[in-house]
Amino acid sequence: MNSSSTSQNNSLKLHMPKHFKTVLFLCIVLLGVCVLASLTLGSRLVRWNELMDGLFYSNVDSYGANIVRKRISRTVFSLFCGAALGVSGALMQSVTRNPIADPSILGVNTGASLFVVFGIAFLGISTAGQYIWLALVGAALTAVFVFAVGSMGRGGATPIKLVLAGAAITAALSSLVTAIMIPRAYVMDQFRFWQVGSVGSGNWSDIGTFVPFLAIGIIIAFITAPALNALALGDDVATGLGVRTGVLRLIAALAAVLLCGATTALAGPIGFIGLLATHVIRLILGSDLRFVIPMSAISGAIILTISDVLGRLIGSPGELEVGVVTAFIGAPILIILAIKSKVRSL
C-alpha cells in the first residue's frame, strides 16, 4: 500500500510543471498587491490608517474609511470577473483548439450585448438578474453560430476560420446593437456605460447574483480538465481513451459561455482577459489544464484588477473604464501573437 501511494505521489510530482510552485507563489503575491492597490489608489488616495479603519472598524465613519468600504465590493467584483474570464478563455481555447480564442474575439461578448440591449429596448429589463439570463442566451447562441460558420468548408473548424467567423459575426451583431439603440435615446443612456465594460458599479448584490454562475462554471472546468487534456491529443486519440468528444465539447463550451455570459451581463463586454491570462500561463507552465485552469483564474483576476486601478489613475479625477484599458493593452498583444504563433492549433 505504501509503495503504491509513493509511486502515485511521484507520478503527480513528475507531471507538475517545473516552475508551478514558484509561479503560484508570485501570482498570490501579485494578487495581494493588486487588492491593496485597488483599495488605496484612485481619484482619492487612501492613507494606511484609513485603510485599517475601513477594513476592521465599522464604527469609524470617516471619509477615507467609507471610500475603502465602497472599494471592497468593487475589488471583490473585479477579482471574480477576472477569474471567470480567465477560466472561460482557457476552456474556449481547449474546446476550439485555438490558442487565441477568447469571448471577445469569437463574438460571444457581442452576442450577449445584443440580447441585453434587445431586452432593455423591447422587454423593459433593468435588473442584474434579468441581464444575466438574456446575456447567457445571447452568448450561447452566438458561440454555436460562430462554431457552425467556422466549421463550414474543407478542414472543419480551423483556428483561423474560427477567428474570421468571430470577427465577421461580431461586426454584424455590433451593427444590430447600434441599429436598436440609435432611435431610442433612453436605451442608449442606459446601455452606453455598460457597453464600455466596467467593474465600477459592482456591488454586493451583483456579487451575490454572480457567485452561483462563477462556482458552477469553475467546478465544471475542473471536472472536465483531464478529459480536455486528452482532447488536445486529437479526437481519435481521445475517443480511444474513452472520451466522448462531442459531449465533452458541449459541456466545456456551456461552462465557458456561463462564465463569460454572466460576467458580460454584470460588467459589460470586457475583452482580451481570457486571451492574455491563459496565453501567459500556457507559455510558462505548458498546456496541462489541471494547472492552466486555476492559474488562468488567478492571472485573470490580477490582470482585470490592475487594469481597473490603471483606469482610475489615468483618468483621475474621473476614471477610464476598464474595458478601454484592457482593449488598449490586449489589441497589440493579439497582433503580436497572431504574427509570431501563426495561429497554430493547440
TrEMBL record:
Location in the cell: Cell membrane
Membrane topology reported for the UniProt record: Multi-pass membrane protein
InterPro entries: ABC_BtuC-like, ABC_transptr_permease_BtuC
Main location: membrane
Segments crossing the lipid bilayer: 72-92, 104-125, 131-150, 162-187, 207-229, 265-285, 292-314, 320-339
One Pfam family of this chain: FecCD
Keywords: Cell membrane, Membrane, Transmembrane, Transmembrane helix, Transport
Family that this chain belongs to: Belongs to the binding-protein-dependent transport system permease family. FecCD subfamily.
Protein name, entry field: FecCD family ABC transporter permease
